[in-house]
Amino acid sequence: MSARRLRSTAASAAVLLATGTGAVVAVVGQSAPAGAATTGWAITQNVLPGLAAATDLGPAPAATPLDLVVSVSRPDPAGERAAIAAEHDPANAQYRHFLSPEQFAARFGVPTTDRQAVSAYLTGTGMRLDAVSTAGDQYSLSGTAAQAAALFRTGFHSYAFDGRQFVANTTVPSFPYGLHISNILGLNTLQRYSLPARSATAQDTCLGSTCLGVTSPQDLWGVYRQPAAYAGQGRGVAVFGEGQTTGVINDLRLFEAAHGLPQVAVTVKHPAGDTDFTDDSGHEEWNIDTQASTGMAPDASGLTMYFGSDLSDADVARVFSQFTDDPGGPMQASASYGECETVPVVSPLVGQLLSNATIASLPISIGLGNNSDATLSAITRQAAAEGRTVFVSSGDTGSSCPVVALPVVGAGNGLLNQAVPVTNSPASLPYVVAVGGTVLYTDGQGHRVREYGWAFSGGGSSLFTPAPDYQVGTAGLVVPCVTTLGPCRGVPDVSAQSGDALSNGYDIVSNGAAAVGAGTSLSAPLWQGMWARIQSASPAVGGNGFANYALYRVGKNPATYGTSFFDVSSTDLTTGLPATNGLYATVPGWDYVTGWGTPRVGGMICSIDAVGC
User: Model-level pTM?
Assistant: First the structure.
């Protein structure tokens, strides 16, 4: 995401070119309200693409409520990355000396004078400042469309498409020079993360020595070689979600009773400013997340549910920020939702992308991508500096991202390879662990019979985010970036059972009855729970830090790879061919379908913690 200085008059138009992975252009017809300063900065991607495809219903009611997250650039991102690398380098004196939120803010946060200036400006038109992050880089606001219009020198209109109405800003937001605002989320009521579609899965069926259907926690303890001595003791887990939590906790208690597991202590935390938690549409998803996480780490010290009001881009950012800023919170969390990664709308680049016949046949020119990556990138980079890990589902649309459900924006997701070869976000961000999916068959006694990559396991190459330092040099990482030299960020990093939404999944309880969890939104919390087990064996009080550094160090070393990972490269039983997710096939070692593969937790404890060898 980029900001550039903007001089505008009522009759002028500007085109702002930017560089970098978040570069986006095109400011056309931007005009300042009467009496407002005409010199300022603008966020060029903070306008919904393709508004011309919707019906413009005219100016939005002035009292339309808006909840915003305004991001401010921290002064030293290069220093942050260097600090993270040092904290995760066994040869460095700073190894495993992770920062607390307060220490991060003192070292890398926004200066006090800048915070004061930003706060004063953001509340100048009457909007309420609900929260400011510890580092002073995230500002949660609530107010009305009229207040936001005056604040950011833009208009707001109501739009309709396919029976759905929403409100969106009509021009790029602008603001005075010197505030270092880098992104604004919530300027429309349409853009949000999506949950995967759900399909029924058959119950347990064993054919000879091969069992289809659902696996239990105990089955996966065996398959993924999880030692009983390390079951998450002293380590908490967290789940990101939205809406109601009471029913989710009730189902968790029934799940624990059904499988003979101890009751984990549950804490629910809501972001400041959020008040409505009536939505229950994600109930089954949150059941999967909680029951998979604690099913893999039954002795975890606690489960924290960071739950917002909805899955709007702004509220998802609030949840991520609350987790990162929680000084006593868990060091691992899972998030099972996604959008297409941010696609820089630089004219030559878009022209190249749309020249591909497959892509050109889809309505993506008016809705590909999101504008929240810049914000979540900064938040998760802080989390990594604090030694925290967010495990994110890589998606259920194969080697594509979840292309728009509306021809404006807003992802559709689930069991469909939509042919657009960009990755899901937040899985594509550098400082999360992206988790892909596998189909797993057991012998009913906790032993693997076959495991292969799921055909809809999200995976591929970001076209715009360079490979992070821990991923550089990974054999199999071969897709170059469009915007920079060298390979781009590849996902997933690792994988675990997702099932196939037909005859394979994980045993959960939902609405008081037996149900099945599936998809990569199962895989991510399974990995969180297994990482909590690895953390519980760590001799370091602060744990092992952001997991990808250790996982790639183990994966790149032939001496530890085979003992720590199961290399998922089996053929797909339905085709007899190497398992693919569309554009990519599973191959020995790291690949764009299953990452390094699925874990052998005991071996990983030996490789990472030097325990139990």
Answer: 0.89
